[in-house]
Write a structure and sequence with these properties.
Elements (H helix, E strand, L loop, with lengths): L2 H16 L27 H27 L3 H13 L13 H7 L10 H35 L13 H12 L6 H10 L7 H12 L5 H15 L3 H12 L2 H4 L4 H14 L2 H13 L6 H14 L3 H13 L4 H7 L4 H14 L38 H17 L1 E5 L9 H37 L6 H4 L4 H14 L5 E2 H23 L2 H16 L11 H7 L13 H18 L1 E3 L11 E3 L1 E8 L2 E8 L1 H10 L3 E5 L10 E5 L2 E3 L16 H8 L6 H11 L2 E4 L1 H12 L29 H37 L5 E2 L2 E3 L5 E3 L10 H5 L1 E3 L3 E2 L4 H13 L7 H10 L1 H9 L14 H15 L8 E2 L3 E4 L3 H10 L2 H6 L11 H18 L3 H5 L6 H11 L5 H13 L9 H19 L1 H19 L5 E3 L5 E3 L28 H30 L5 E3 L2 E4 L4 H16 L3 H13 L8 H12 L21
Antiparallel strand pairs: 1-7, 2-6, 3-4, 5-6, 8-9, 10-11, 10-14, 12-13, 15-16, 17-21, 18-19, 20-21
Helix pairs in contact: 1-2, 2-3, 2-5, 3-5, 6-7, 7-15, 9-10, 9-12, 10-12, 12-13, 12-14, 13-14, 14-15, 14-16, 14-17, 15-17, 18-23, 19-21, 19-25, 19-26, 21-22, 22-25, 28-44, 32-33, 32-35, 34-35, 36-44, 38-40, 38-42, 40-41, 40-42, 41-42, 42-43, 43-44, 43-47, 44-45, 46-47
Length: about 1250
């Protein structure tokens, strides 16, 4: 019986059994009530209906027998009545008799009480025998069907031997598999490898060429390759081989296979020393029309080396490799090999060629960039900084970090005000505890069932998620899912984000466990201890080197770095895990009710929302669950290890996949959702080209930090009270605006109803925003409290433009004013003769009070308000509170405290300061544009020229707009007349600041409208007309002041438009050699909320989004230049022994080292812009996008080439003046 029929039959049986006592006559009147209603129509086949009938009769017989035995124990008269009733039941519907009512039956039965063995008993016996026979027949049929079903569900043996297309190869394989004594297996293998498959047609040859050369894999191929690779990771090699054979044997599916997939399976068999299976795959490669490459032969030779094969077999393999045009030496240079694999490979080769010796390891490549020549020069003196900690302390910190990463998560005490342990709170915590036990058990069962189902599908030859579900044990997956459930916000999270994060964390935890099992942790410990000799304060090394250079000199890694899992596969795995979580986790509708007393509801559910005109799926927790969490007020938070700062210096970055955390894999370049092009660019980039970026990220990550405890105490005091929005301390949810309560009268006007709806929506929006800000602050402050007495490090990576970011997201120096004030350098420096002055100037800069004054005037102002500074340091919350009026209040307070400690020291020059002092670029984007165009007018506006006072470009633009307004007002333009007295620096600042980063006139108009709306005396009915007028005048003013800037922007925009219309995303290379590609494509749909078996769309290359490509190119190109300037400054500061970190175009160092950093910053800006940046960009774009165009696109390509070669002309500004500009960075 099929599973479907079995289910239907069982359901039918259930209905029969459940109907007893429900339908028909009441039980006290003696009826059985079995199926007396009208029969239902059925779509079942006649045979199935017969089976149902037999099954029902058999069950009916058992019920009747039980009833008879029950009635025989009762009174004779009642037995008689019921016997008559039962005897008449089978006759219903036959047409020959009618059913007597119970009352009539009682009257007619009075004289028959003394004859219990009447006619009804004979009919009952006869019916019993008939039903018994039918029951036996049914049991036989069911047994046969059950055996067939079990045979069908029984796992089929995995297929190892392939079905080949080539008849020659098939015959050779058969002979080889039989292994006749006259023809040894080695001879047969050599013959099989030398046979050529049947000649392909022209169409097949073209298709094969597309599979080999056509570079980019489709989404389906990505998933298939990832399936094979994951099978190797999880010891499911036989399953992978089975799926490979299934695809190879199917002509349609074989088109999906690539040489890399065959090589992956061959490599797995080679590591196990399984020669027979490896030969199967090798022959499949030939049968598919591929030519084995270096990796193919490396796997075969490695396997032979492990098995100690005969030299003649190895020699034949080497000869075949030479006939395929491959060089033996290249295996050791081009193929990533672990030390064990390299030894096995060499053992095989030496056996056949005893004189062979592998090529020496190539010397480390050296970056040849003109800009980095000084960084990597060995003939100039250097003074690389060391950490302030001794070797023994650093080794202890390494052990703590290692233990933290092995446990994969960190528990942190929450700084939220502790809840009073009332009866309600205790009950909520107990309920949560009990529910979590149930959820863990339910998740464990659901994961086992899911894995079993996926395994059956994989055994049918389908590449499922089964190996990915084996990355972790069920226990580890349950732990991961429970942490995900705990972290979901009340408003829910995008399902794509949840799925991606689940997949990433699963893969990351597997990599940690794998390194632990493969003894890589011990090797890392030895290597890292040697590396610490370079950083520790009490050790010396023979030759000073950059951290990356020193790490590489310690020898090659024990095992090649694993490639990251493709994003589509991570999404698919995460979607499967999220679906398990949704289906398995349930709770009572009333959590306070005892178990089983009310119905269960899902804790998570799917909803849809619109974000930026896109409909997206949201995974949202049930309000009852969130209420339970809120009531329980649990005192701990759980973070992933990679979300927390490191307790020891990070690993130096040595490749796009290796660096930062000790065990957890980290990407060098952050990816935009759904994009993978930049990762391929990095992998294809020569390693030496990335040295500048790798060394900068390592240097930024090596900066040691500590928490500013004095500031933290004050923030926590406000946070645990009611917060303070003015100071950036989010208030608790209890302070959120309450929506209007009560019911509206029926006669409420529609306008009033609409107003209340808007008010309700506003309150809900504000409440959600407050919750989000409060949660962000809770995470940051809890981590700060957790690390209060610790030294920690922030590993860095970069985005696709080269801009750098700390990896831990919740607690770093890139956040708000509050986040920056909580951090200070762990290593201090004496202030020296000028350090105190720089602290004072830094404080005035933070207040924003003297932006247009000279440095001397700012220093004088700080001395004038010294009483307020000291009062702020001593009585921050009860004194005059001068610090609260600053633009950056918390950083200003931290600076006040540092100045107070310094001036109260007998000799302020000896005071050891830990406070970072900032130097910020003056509208840095426009600075780069003015330098690119050698624009003298623009350069003067953004402080590239040495002047006595700092120039404020925003005030300059406002003044120019006012000139235009006066002219229009004199000509009688009404809107210009209305705007008199309203044009200020504040009104135009945001638009001027963002126009360099690609803001459109529409966006600029909205910015100006927002500023005008804040002016209470401005006529609100003219907002649109006034903002539209002003944005035009702002753009006209910028055109007047920055003519070269607008020309360069237009050239970049037009170039990007034509490139994207030709079907390509815009690419370029930064001056430091980082490859950049813009990740803006047509929207891709990720189906991540359907059932597990739902199809997924192909993630093949998508068309570029022309609008985003052209709007994004100018700002992204400028961002790549400011990141290059920062990296050059960082590397040269490190070479001079300075502590340096940055927030994009804001550079930080100790107060004593500001003068040195300022000199380096200016020198590197001049060196950067002394390069022919625009000319190099033009040449790269022409070579990349205009080479060998097709005939049909020659006209389009001609226009593109003409545009790309039309580099804007430059002015006469002398870049050397930047070196003497005081306010370039200040």
């Amino acid at each position: 019986m099929s599973a479907l029929r079995w289910g239907r039959g069982a359901a039918g049986l259930g209905r029969v059994l459940q109907s007893c006592g429900r339908r028909g006559l009441p039980a006290e009147e003696g009826t059985l009530g079995v199926g007396l209603g009208p029969s239902r129509s059925s779509s079942a086949s006649p045979r199935e209906q017969d089976l149902r009938k037999d099954w029902g009769h058999a069950e009916l017989l058992e019920v009747l027998e039980a009833r008879v035995r029950q009635l025989q124990a009762e009174s004779v008269s009642e037995v008689t009545v019921n016997k008559v009733d039962v005897a008449r039941l089978p006759e219903r519907g036959s047409g020959g008799g009618s059913f007597q009512t119970p009352r009539k039956a009682q009257v007619g039965a009075k004289g028959a009480a003394s004859q219990p063995s009447g006619r009804w008993a004979e009919k009952l016996d006869k019916e019993k025998q008939t039903l018994q026979k039918r029951k036996q027949q049914l049991e036989v049929k069911l047994q046969v069907r059950a055996q067939r079903l079990a045979q069908k569900l029984k796992p089929k043996p995995l297929q190892m031997e392939p079905q080949l297309v080539s008849r020659q190869l098939a015959d050779s394989l058969q002979c080889w598999a039989q292994g006749t004594p006259e023809s040894p297996s080695e001879e047969q293998l050599a013959q099989a490898l030398q046979k050529v498959p049947q000649k392909l047609s022209l169409k097949e040859e073209q298709a094969l060429a597309d599979r080999v050369v056509g570079a980019q894999l489709t989404g389906q191929q990505q998933k298939l390759l990832a399936f094979f690779e994951c099978c190797l990771l999880t010891d499911n090699l036989r399953l992978a081989h089975h799926v490979l054979v299934a695809h190879h044997s199917n002509p349609h599916k074989q088109q999906l296979l690539t040489l890399a997939m065959y090589n992956t399976i061959m490599l797995g068999w080679a590591r196990q020393g399984s020669f027979k299976e490896l030969v199967y795959v090798f022959i499949m490669v030939k049968d598919a029309g591929f030519s084995p490459d270096l990796l193919s032969y490396a796997a075969a030779l490695q396997c032979m080396g492990r098995l100690d094969q005969h030299a003649r077999t190895i020699q034949r393999c080497l000869e075949q490799m030479a006939r395929d045009g491959l060089q033996l030496q290249d295996i050791f240079t081009a193929v990533p090999l672990s030390e064990e694999e390299r030894a096995a490979l060499l053992r095989a080769i030496v056996k056949a060629q005893p004189t062979f010796s592998p090529p020496p390891r190539s010397p480390p490549q050296v970056n040849t960039s003109t800009l980095l020549r000084e960084i990597y020069a060995k003939d100039s003196p250097v003074s690389y900084p060391k950490l302030h900690l001794p070797l023994k302390t650093l080794q202890g910190l390494f052990q703590e970090q290692l233990h933290m990463e092995l446990t994969t998560s960190v528990s942190v005490e929450s700084v939220e005000k502790a809840a009073v342990l009332t009866k309600e709170v205790m009950h909520a915590r107990k309920t949560l505890k009990n529910l979590r036990v149930q959820w863990e058990a339910a998740l464990h069962r659901a994961l086992q069932e899911t894995k079993a189902s996926l395994a059956r599908q994989a055994q049918e030859g389908r590449p499922t998620l089964y190996p990915f579900m084996c990355l972790l044990s069920e226990r580890e997956f349950v732990r991961l899912l429970m942490q995900t459930l705990q972290a979901l916000p009340a408003q829910g999270e995008s399902l794509v984000c949840v799925a991606q994060e689940l997949g990433r964390r699963a893969f990351s935890r597997h990599m940690v466990q794998k390194q632990q099992l493969n003894n890589q942790v011990q090797a890392l410990e030895q290597r890292y201890t040697q590396y610490l000799h370079l950083l520790a304060s009490d050790t010396q090394v023979a030759e000073p080197r950059l951290p990356r250079q020193y790490w590489e000199a310690l020898g090659p890694p024990e095992a090649p770095q694993e490639k990251p899992c493709p994003l589509p596969v991570l999404l698919q795995l995460g979607r499967q895990l999220a679906e398990v979580l949704v289906q398995a986790v349930q709770m009572p509708l009333g959590p306070a009710s005892p178990p089983g007393s009310c119905r269960l509801i899902p804790v998570l559910y799917h909803v849809y929302s619109f974000r930026s005109f896109r409909q997206i799926g949201i995974l949202k927790p049930h309000p009852a669950y969130m209420q339970l969490l809120e009531t329980a007020a649990e005192p701990t938070l759980t973070f992933e290890t990679v979300d927390v700062p490191m307790l020891c210096p990070p690993l130096p970055w040595t490749s796009p996949h290796s660096g930062a955390f000790l065990l957890s894999p980290t990407k060098l370049m952050r990816s935009v959702e759904g994009t993978t092009q930049h990762q391929r660019l990095l992998e294809c980039c020569p390693p030496a080209e990335l040295h500048g970026a790798l060394d900068t990220l390592t240097q930024l990550g090596n900066c040691a930090w500590r928490v500013n405890g004095h500031v933290l105490d004050l923030v926590l005091e406000l946070f645990r009270d009611k917060g303070c929005s003015r100071l950036g301390v989010p208030p608790p949810p209890s302070e959120a605006p309450q929506p209007p309560e009560g019911h509206l009268p029926r006669d409420t006007p529609p306008a009033r109803k609409a107003e209340l709806r808007r008010e309700l929506a506003r309150c809900l929006k504000v409440a959600r925003e407050m919750h989000s800000l409060r949660t962000d602050a809770l995470y940051r402050l809890s981590l700060a409290q957790h690390l209060r007495h610790r030294i920690f490090w922030l590993p860095h990576n970069m985005d696709f433009r080269g801009r750098t970011y700390p990896c831990p997201p919740h607690f770093n120096h890139l956040g708000s004013d509050l986040a920056r004030a909580l951090l200070e350098f762990a290593e201090g420096r004496p202030l020296g003769p000028h350090g105190l002055d720089w602290l004072k100037i830094h404080l005035v800069n933070l207040t924003g009070l003297k932006k247009r004054e000279s440095l001397r005037a700012r220093l004088a102002f700080a001395n004038e308000v010294m009483e307020d500074i000291l009062d702020s340091a001593d009585q921050p919350l009860v004194g005059r509170k001068w610090w609260m009026e600053a633009d950056e209040p918390w950083q200003a307070l931290a600076c006040c405290m540092e100045i107070a400690r310094a001036v109260r020291t007998p000799d302020p020059a000896t005071y050891v300061s830990h406070l970072p002092v900032h130097q910020d670029g003056s509208c840095n984007g426009l600075q780069h544009y003015a330098a690119l165009g050698r624009d003298s007018v623009g350069a003067a506006s953004v402080n590239l020229m040495p002047l006595d006072l700092p120039q404020d470009v925003y005030s300059g633009v406002a003044a120019q707009v006012e000139v235009f307004r006066r002219q229009d007002a004199d000509q009688g333009l009404q809107v210009a007349q209305v705007l008199e007295g309203f044009i200020s620096r504040k009104v135009v600042k945001q638009t001027v600041m963002t126009v360099v980063y690609g803001v459109t006139r529409y966006g600029g108009r909205l910015q100006i409208e927002k500023r005008l709306r804040e002016l209470s005396d401005f006529p609100q009915d003219l907002l649109w007309e006034a903002s539209n007028y002003l944005v035009r005048q702002v753009f006209n003013s910028l055109q007047e002041m920055f003519s070269s800037t607008r020309a360069i922007q237009h050239w970049l925009t037009e170039s990007a438009r034509l490139i994207s219309q030709a079907g390509s995303a815009v690419e370029w290379v930064t001056p430091l050699g980082i490859p950049v590609i813009q990740p803006y494509h047509q929207e891709a749909k990720f189906m991540v909320c359907g059932p597990p078996s739902s199809p997924h769309p192909s993630l093949s290359p998508r068309k570029p989004n022309t609008q985003k490509q052209k709007n994004g190119f100018p700002p992204n190109f400028i961002h790549s230049l400011d990141s290059s300037h920062m990296m050059l400054t960082a590397l040269h500061c490190y070479r001079k022994g300075l502590t340096f970190v940055s927030v994009h175009d804001c550079f930080w160092t100790h107060a004593a080292d500001i003068a040195i950093m300022n000199q380096v910053c200016r020198e590197q800006f001049v060196r950067l812009h002394s390069q022919p940046i625009l000319q190099d960009l033009s040449a790269f774009l022409v070579k990349r996008f205009c080479s060998s165009p097709s005939v049909s696109r020659r006209t389009q390509m001609a226009k593109l080439m003409e545009t790309l070669q039309s580099v804007p002309k430059t002015g006469t500004f002398d870049l050397e003046q930047v070196k003497r500009s005081t306010y370039f960075f200040s």
